[in-house]
């Protein structure tokens, strides 16, 4: 019949939701349309073309790079944390005869494995998996590695007291693995190596662990240096690749002639602004603007002159999209789209009329036009974020058409059309 037992919470489902929430929060911090100052873009271009070591990106993008890289490196870090638990868990299953160690050393190994190594490794893996976007995930992995190293040095010290020597090469594998596979920045790798050397040298100086031979020190120093150089090379490569991808994203969303956003960027941004308007209960202006008699400019003065005119108009239009949720884009040709957040009808009409006046004030020659100057017409509607983009396009275009029919060089705000 029916199962009347109360539903039990799924612990795994809770952890999955926690991890997913962290990834969603990290993604929400990145706007679908990247906005970067020109100086930052130029710096990224130099970085993408450079070949030397690279340890830092411009301040505006460095936090985004670090967060994205932590998420990218998360799976490898989790596997790196789980590996010691698997290795020492397997050793727990082997009899002392197979391990070929004195009974006292085997007991100590099992004690350290159960009480220190395996719990530390599993805790580091869980924290890293749950918090992929946080800097604490890397700190936990590094701290866990040093705890494992300390436990291994304790094993070496106690084993020496029982007349048994544990190979020190296993300890060296910890900082090398963290440097090569952990996805740490170069300065963090140097800190990990310094921690390793402090533990090893400290144990030798205090007489707890057997001293290393000169050849062993040379070998360890060489491996630490190689792993540090590998970390530097990987970090440089990752940063340069990230800068190139960021530039590519900018190019995909930017109109090269006017430096305004393009249609694709505008449509992505509209979805973000519309959702925010619905949450805040705000209105926003959606407008289309079109240069008047622009074909006459190209026909009389040539396309080079026309491109220059578009660039100048783009500078004026760019002043109307300064707030985070405002955006002005070139849709194509001489047509532009304007989105102004938290804008009522009165303010919208004032802003559009100011645009018309400023473009006319540029004084760009258009000898064959009625005013002998380049002018612009604009038509817009007010939306609460619940209208579709296609409907707003049609509605704003209808207002723009009325301005064109009325003589151009003007602006008009009207209602949204019926569906």
Descriptive notes:
With 419 residues, the chain is an alpha+beta fold. The chain has helices at 11-28, 38-49, 62-72, 74-93, 96-99, 103-130, 135-161, 169-181, 186-205, 214-253, 263-280, 294-301, 303-318, 345-361, 389-405, and strands spanning 284-291, 327-332, 335-341, 376-383, 411-414. It has a five-stranded mixed sheet, sandwiched between helices. A hairpin with a 2-residue loop joins strand 2 and strand 3. The longest helix is centred in the middle third of the chain and has 40 residues, at 214-253. The protein is elongated. The two termini are 50 Å apart. The model is unreliable at 1-9 (pLDDT under 50). Its EC number is 2.7.7.65. It comes from Sinimarinibacterium thermocellulolyticum. This is diguanylate cyclase. One of its GO terms (molecular function) is diguanylate cyclase activity. It catalyses: 2 GTP = 3',3'-c-di-GMP + 2 diphosphate.
């Amino acid at each position: 019949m029916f199962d009347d037992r109360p539903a039990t919470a799924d612990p795994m489902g809770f952890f999955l939701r926690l991890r997913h929430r962290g990834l969603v929060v990290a993604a929400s911090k990145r706007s679908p349309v990247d906005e970067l100052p020109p100086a930052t873009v130029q710096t990224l271009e130099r970085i993408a073309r450079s070949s030397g070591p690279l340890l830092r990106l411009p301040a505006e993008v460095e936090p985004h790079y670090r967060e994205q890289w932590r998420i990218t490196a998360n799976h490898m870090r989790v596997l790196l944390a789980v590996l010691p638990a698997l290795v020492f868990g397997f050793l727990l299953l082997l009899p002392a005869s197979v391990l070929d160690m004195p009974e006292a050393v085997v007991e100590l190994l099992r004690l350290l494995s159960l009480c220190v190594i395996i719990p530390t490794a599993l805790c580091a893996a869980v924290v890293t998996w749950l918090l992929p976007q946080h800097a604490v995930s890397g700190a936990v992995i590094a701290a866990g590695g040093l705890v494992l190293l300390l436990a291994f040095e304790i094993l070496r010290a106690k084993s020496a007291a029982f007349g048994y020597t544990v190979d020190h090469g296993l300890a060296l594998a910890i900082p090398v693995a963290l440097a090569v596979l952990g996805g740490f920045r170069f300065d963090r790798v140097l800190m990990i190596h310094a921690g390793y050397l402090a533990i090893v040298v400290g144990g030798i100086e205090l007489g707890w662990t057997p001293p290393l031979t000169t050849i062993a020190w040379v070998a360890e120093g060489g491996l630490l240096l190689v792993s540090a150089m590998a970390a530097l090379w990987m970090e440089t490569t990752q940063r340069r690749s990230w800068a190139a991808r960021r530039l590519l994203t900018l190019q995909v969303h930017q109109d090269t002639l006017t430096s305004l956003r393009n249609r694709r960027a505008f449509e992505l941004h509209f979805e973000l602004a519309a959702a925010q308007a619905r949450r805040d209960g705000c209105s926003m202006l959606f407008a289309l603007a079109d240069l008047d008699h622009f074909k006459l400019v190209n026909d009389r003065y040539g396309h080079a002159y026309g491109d220059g005119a578009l660039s100048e108009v783009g500078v004026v239009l760019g002043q109307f999209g300064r707030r985070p949720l405002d955006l002005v884009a070139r849709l194509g040709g001489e047509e532009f789209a304007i989105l102004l957040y938290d804008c009522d009808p009165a303010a919208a009409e004032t802003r559009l009329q100011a645009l018309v006046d400023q473009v006319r004030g540029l004084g760009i020659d258009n000898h064959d036009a009625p005013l002998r100057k380049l002018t612009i017409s604009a038509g817009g509607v007010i939306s609460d974020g619940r209208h579709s983009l296609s409907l707003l396009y049609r509605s704003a275009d209808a207002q723009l058409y009325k301005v064109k029919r009325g003589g151009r060089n003007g602006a008009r705000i009207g209602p949204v059309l019926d569906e």
